[in-house]
Each structure stands twice: as structure tokens, then as C-alpha cells.
């Protein structure tokens, strides 16, 4: 898989509240060679970002409690890593321009196609 070389060794933070979806996304990213840290809450994701440097963040948007919108807002305020690429993965078709204004670098609708996920992440990390 050509994508494995592209994501090989990249550190990805994944925020997904649904256990099955989180496990599936971790598996997809790890199959492509990424090193993944996953969390079920936005607060845990923010704490991980404050402890560790990541190459990209993949986050669900609509969740109980703090949302992916809250997380991206917090990320953009972090002095250490305000430009880390953030990919929204959501089951809700939010308008793209609104997602970009909110601070996301791109968005994908669930269910995620692996090749599209790898391509999108690769492009976002190259631009960062």
C-alpha cells in the first residue's frame, strides 16, 4: 500500500466518542503505518495535545459534552501547536465553509473510505 509509507510513523490524535467507530478508525490509521493515540472525549484529546506533539488530529464533531468544534477552537489557541492539521470526521453534512471558519482544515463524512482518509491526511500534513 503506497499510503502506508506516507502515514508511516506519523503521530495522529483521534477523538471519537463511539467505541466501535474509534476502534475502526484506529485500525485504519495503524494499517497505514500511523502511530495513533485515541480518546473518547474532547477534554482528554486536549490534554494529550498538551503533553505530546502530533502530526494531525482527526476528530468527530457532534459528541455528548464538549464537541469537536470546542476542541478545534482550543487547538487554535494553543501557543505550541496552533497550526496542527485538524480533520473533522462527521456523520452530519455541515457546510464546508463553516467548518473551515470554525478552524478545521478539512472534513469527511462517515463512513470513511480508507483511501480517501489516507489521501486527505497526507495532503493536510504536507501543507502544515
What keywords describe this structure?
128 residues, alpha/beta, 5-stranded parallel β-sheet
Description:
- With 128 residues, this protein is α/β, with parallel strands linked by helices.
- Strand 3, helix 4 and strand 4 form a beta-alpha-beta unit.
- Helix 3 packs parallel to helix 4.
- It is globular and about 30 Å long.
- The two termini are 23 Å apart.
- The model has no long low-confidence stretch (mean pLDDT 91).
The fraction of residues assigned to DSSP E strands is: 15-25%
Sequence of secondary-structure elements: HEHEHEHEHEH
Number of continuous helical runs: 6
- Radius of gyration (CA) equals 13 Å
Biggest sheet overview = 5 strands, parallel
Structure classification: alpha/beta
Intertermini distance: 23 Å
Which shape, going by the Cα principal axes? globular
Number of strands: 5
Uncertain segments of ≥5 residues (pLDDT<50)? none
Can you list the strand order of the major beta sheet? 2-1-3-4-5
Please bin the fraction of helical residues. 40-55%
Mean pLDDT: 91
What would you say about this model in short?
The protein is an alpha/beta fold.
List the helices and strands and how they pair.
Elements: H1 2-7, E1 11-15, H2 19-31, E2 35-39, H3 42-51, E3 56-59, H4 68-77, E4 86-90, H5 96-102, E5 106-109, H6 114-127
Parallel strand pairs: 1-2, 1-3, 3-4, 4-5
Helix pairs in contact: 3-4
Amino acid at each position: 500500500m503506497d499510503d502506508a509509507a506516507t502515514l508511516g510513523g506519523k503521530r495522529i490524535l483521534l477523538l471519537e466518542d463511539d467505541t466501535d467507530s474509534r476502534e475502526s478508525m484506529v485500525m485504519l490509521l495503524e494499517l497505514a503505518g500511523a502511530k495513533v493515540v485515541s480518546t473518547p472525549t474532547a477534554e482528554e484529546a486536549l490534554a494529550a495535545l498538551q503533553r505530546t506533539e502530533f502530526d494531525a488530529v482527526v476528530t468527530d464533531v457532534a459528541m455528548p459534552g464538549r464537541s469537536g468544534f470546542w476542541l478545534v477552537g482550543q487547538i487554535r489557541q494553543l501557543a505550541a501547536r496552533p497550526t496542527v492539521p485538524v480533520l473533522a470526521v462527521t456523520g452530519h453534512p455541515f457546510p464546508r465553509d463553516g467548518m473551515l471558519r470554525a478552524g478545521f482544515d478539512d472534513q469527511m463524512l462517515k463512513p470513511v473510505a480508507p483511501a480517501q482518509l489516507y489521501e486527505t491526511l497526507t495532503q493536510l500534513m504536507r501543507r502544515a
